[in-house]
Structures are given as C-alpha cells and as structure tokens.
From TrEMBL:
UniProt family annotation: Belongs to the short-chain dehydrogenases/reductases (SDR) family.
Protein name in UniProt: Glucose 1-dehydrogenase
Domain of life: Bacteria
Record's keyword terms, sorted: Oxidoreductase
Organism, as annotated: Kocuria aegyptia
Pfam families, alphabetized: adh_short_C2 (PF13561)
Amino acid sequence: MTAGCRLDGHRALVTGAGRGLGRAIADTLAELGAVVHGTSRDPATARQIAERYGTAPLQLDITDIDSFPGLVDDLEDTGGIDLLVNNAGINIPRPAVDVTVQDWDAVMDANLKGTFFLTTAVARNWLSHHRGGAVVNIASQAGLVAIEERAAYGTSKAGLVHLTKLLALEWARENIRVNAVAPTFVRTELTASTLERPDWAAELLSRIPAGRFGEPEDIAGAVAFLLSDAASLITGQALAIDGGYTIR
C-alpha cells in the first residue's frame, strides 16, 4: 500500500474480530499502524483479541443496543477511536418459504439494527468532541444482486448499503466518512460448509469471472484503504470486492 494508506496515529474498533474476516481486517489495520480494539460476544475470545492487539477486552453482542453507550464511554476513557469497522453479523441461509420470524428478526437485528445503533453511538461521541472519523460497513454482494437462500441476509445487506449512503450524506460536513464493502463469497470458517460442497462451489465459481473465491486479505486491504487518508474524498460508496460477480 502507498504511504497514504498508513494508519499511524489512528485508533480503530472492529466488531467481530475474533476470527475470519474480522480478524484479517483487525490484523491489517494493526500492521498499518493503528491501535486496534476488537470485540467478540464470547468473553474468552474477547480476551484473546485484547492480547493480540495489546488493548482492553471488549465483550459485545451487536444486538445488545443498551450496552453501546457504555462501550463508547469505555473507549473514550482509553483515548477514543476515530475508525469503526462494522463487521459483526450473521447469516441464516434458507429457502424463503422456510425463513421463520425468528430467523428474520435475528438477521435484521444483527446486520442492520445493531450496526445502525452502534454507528450512531460512535458518531454521537465524535460529534460531541468535534472529532471526525471514518466508518466501513461490511455489506455483501448479496445486498447488490439476488442470491439463492439469502432472502433475509440479502435484504439486511441491501439495507446496510443504503444506510451507508444516508449516514454519509448526513455527516459529510462533520468530517465523518461512511463507506461499505460488498464482498463475494470469502473463504472463512463461517463459509466452509458452503464452499466445501463441490456442486455448490462449482456453481458459485461459474458466476465469478475472476475464477476464484475471495480471501480475507482481499477484503481487509480494501477496508484499510477506505479508512485511510488516501480515501479522504470517498464517502457514501459501496465497493464490490467480488471478482466481477455483480457485473452481469
């Protein structure tokens, strides 16, 4: 990356940083010089994240909205943050006719509702301290095009893409940038059950002109760029990192 993508002096919060994509993003931000705070729902994992980055353990359930002000206050007491990566979320793949009310609510609460209220809690702190900041939301190509068995997930990520634009518009004058990335299928622990099915994997690969699935590092580099000063005039955008999946 260019010198403009360095993150020295910045302090980041990455939700869901214990594994997979979240961990790769947090590692990349740390390598680029940022102080990284990472969250997990699991207290043991939260402690491991803290040890990895030399910061305090942060246990967070993205659906526990009442806990967000306290989290932001705790971060402020340790120097505050100026970067936020909304990575925590869930997927419950099912045919649309099999999606239950509980499935729908769980996906929306984590991927859209929780993300919105955490972001506004952080932004409220930035505004009160006249501090700018940058946010990257982890959306999905499923929020840009239709994919089988993703009715709830795709709807939540489409909402997140539009929310990115709405917040970017509202906060642009306050020096707060809000962008999103929309990855294709990425090889992580969470996607293994899908991508290791030969029939399904072959079908998915046939839709990706680049001919491969994503790796966590593919997404992490793009997130770091969007958070950096090299992207200082970019806001309200959803960058598809999809090997061409959504171009046709």
